[in-house]
Amino acid sequence: MLLHAPSVYDFRHESILYGPVSDLVPSTPVFEMYPIGLTTIAEYLERHGLRVRIVNLAVRMLDSDSFDPEKMIRQLRPAAFGIDLHWLPHAHGAIEIARLCKKLHPDIPVMLGGFSSTYYHRELIERPEVDYVVRGDSTEEPVLQLMQHITGRPGAPALADIPNLTWRGSDGAIHVNEIGYSPASLDHVLIDYSYVVKAVARYRDLASFVPFKGWLGYPITAALSVRGCTHGCRTCGGSAAAFAALHNRRRPAYRAPEDLAQDIRNIARFSRGPVFILGDIRQAGPEYADRFLTAIAGYHGPVILELFDAADREFIQRVAAAMPNWTLEISLESHSDEVRAAFGRPYKNSSIEDTMRHALEAGVQRLDLFFMIGLPRQDYQSVMDTIDYCEYLMRDLDTGSPRRLIPFISPLAPFVDPGSQVFEHPERHGYRLFARTLEEHRQALVQPSWKYVLNYETEWMNRDQIVDSTYEAGLRLNRLKARYGLVDAAQAQRTEARILKARRLIAQVDDIMSIQDAERRAKLLWAIKPQVDSANLSTVCEKTELNVPLAGIRLNLPRVAYFFIEQTLRRRRPTMRSDKVTN
Ligand code: SF4
After folding, report:
1. Measured from the CA of 345, which atom of ligand 1 is nearest?
2. Using alpha carbons only, what angle is made at residue 251 by residues 245 and 257, rounded to the nearest 5 degrees?
């Protein structure tokens, strides 16, 4: 049983002004989206004879105030509970759900996994509610071996022989096995969601598998081109240096380009939503990109591509010819070459603006640009200058109609990633950290506003300035988007009203926090909960601004049913290779 916890358990009974921490990702501030690894682990275990169910507790709790996770967990009797603690914003929820599982089922093992679990494995295994931590970036095989051990399969390995495992022996001693499993490629996983389709039908439980609130109306999925990265963005826990230190990964593991193209085509059989290709397809070199574009050529569904560096005209035209319904995403972070370089992005404005021009010329459907607040060498004025730069881009680069260049800005929040260069050496990069341990982050998550949740500030902006510049930048960019016709007047007004309300509330929370009497403080915070809840969704922009326009039916349910039957029959054929699906 794989469980996905909300960021804070139980957020429904807390008064927390989350701020724009999740405005630019599909999740709400509860971070209900589960990591893609949950589905690859589930599919891998099923392929090896185990039955696996995923329950997205976070989305169930968001969907219904009356949903009772405790009641649901009490009714379950799995061989083991697995809980993802991949992103650190789940530090509170994941631990509380582990505690709940252990309280209700003391005899059932509880395992945790994910990047944050890997970083904090020693702290986690000290907790009585955690029996195992499975470390590394690819845990499909170690989890399978652990499950074979737990279920007493003949020939199952001893705990000491399971790679990547941190565990507690019967004498209480803690053992940390080597990270010996770090596959060189992604050939061992299947990333086309066929497992999810089958499991939904088997358990008749669509609600628990939904990846995030609103997904049925906008079924975006991800295709994974790589685990690892060749870049070194300073605050990223998925950088090359972090992968090497935490996951024993010296080189990224790539999905074979033809398999990546096939994954996308398989997804398109049941979903007409966009497929986000995670990872710059040029990271493995020009031959990889070329093979992928050859394999995907003629695909007409919506695809979102990300670039980590500038690209030349030839590459962009090749992408446009292969996947005409494409959106491009680039994270510029700042208008300033100096700030961007300090953050670790390798390109300058001149080359990335050329890339944008090539993309617009080649007919990109949308060009989404992401800027960030809380960067090294970035002060308040620099953030405002970034908004001026956004106007320049909207005005001078995208002169066509309808406009396709869409800038977004949000804070680096709530946490600098553990394992990133900034987290490991904050002073070297001009940062001050307020939380280092898992327990400190767990406690930070229940602070009453995102200002107090932030685990850092910089030499150039303290937490107040990060908050102030975020709201001011959000206001200015929203007005510019209205002026250039990227959002309509009514939507712009709604966004402006939300930002102003959030600004008032954060000041109110500050006032309450200055009260010495803890009981009175708690009472006053609870009293403003209705306003706080109403300001918690989409602060600096509406989530729909991120959506690629979709026409007609988004999920093809007859195709889902057909896909399910076909997959079941295929897997019963003994000659069928178990790790591939052909179209
Ligand atoms: S933020 Fe930078 S280091 Fe992290 S995955 Fe993206 S490109 Fe790689």
Report:
1. 2
2. 140
